[in-house]
Amino acid sequence: MSVKIDRKIVEYQVVSKTNEPEAAPEPAPKKSESGTIAEVIELQPLLQRPENLEGATYKIKTPLSEHALYVTINDISVKGKRRPFEIFINSKNMENFAWIVALTRVLSAVFRHGGDASFLVEELRSVVDPRGGYFKPGGKYMPSLVAEIGECIETHMIRIGLIREAELSESLKAKRKTAKDSGIVGASQCPKCSQFSVARLDGCDTCLECGYSKCG
């Protein structure tokens, strides 16, 4: 129903029709330096760095450079178990300086969140350099320098007991023995582990390194 107002309005008052309390205002989302507004969700709190950490340094020598890379991984003790906390990579070769610094910062950030970081090994080892990889002393093929850094992290994680070294299946052991007894040498590259270890066994291409086979 409409109401006719025939006098000048000099004041007003807002009256609520319900007795419900007003909802608390939602917190404003954080704004980044770039101006993009995004909600920040922290999955796990960051581990705090002690004054002193135990660690190990590994030397990586590749035919890509006359200067070696030195990978230092420092560990922190969590519930009586060691786990990686930070990683540093140094070399006299400054060619790859920018991306190596970026890589170490990202890896260290993942380590400090305290979750399971073993997935980094597989991610790094699967990186393939489009310019081609190289063979390590002993004949093992490395598809990229990043892949060797991943293998270095795997070696360290096995050393401190964070992950277990992969055990060969009986099937793969038998295939390696057959190849050795028959004098078969792998010639083509495996699409799974990138090793040049694929040999023809029983009419099927089989990787003698990881056991991959097109025949299943």
* Large-scale geometry: elongated
Widest sheet, order of strands = 1-2-3
Looking at the overall shape, the CATH architecture of the domain at 54-159 is 2-Layer Sandwich
Radius of gyration in whole Å, from Cα? 29 Å
CATH class (first level) name of the domain at 54-159: Alpha Beta
Mean pLDDT: 81
Distance from N terminus to C terminus (CA atoms, Å) equals 80 Å
% residues in beta strands: 15-25%
| Helix content estimate | 10-25%
If helices are DSSP runs of H or I spanning 4 or more residues, what is the number of helices? 4
What is CATH's topology name of the domain at 54-159? Enolase-like, domain 1
Largest sheet: 3 strands, antiparallel
In total, how many beta strands? 7
Instruction: Write the H/E string, N to C.
Output: EEEHHEEHHEE
pLDDT < 50 stretches: none
- Structural category is alpha+beta
Structural overview:
The chain is of the alpha+beta class. Among the domains are: 54-159, Enolase-like, domain 1 (2-Layer Sandwich); 170-207, no CATH class. Helices cover 24% and strands 18% of the residues. The protein is built from 4 helices and 7 strands. It has a 3-stranded antiparallel β-sheet with strand order 1-2-3. Strand 6 (198-201) and strand 7 form a beta hairpin. The longest helix has 16 residues, at 97-112. The chain is elongated, with a radius of gyration of 29 Å. The relative contact order is 0.10. The model has no long low-confidence stretch (mean pLDDT 81).
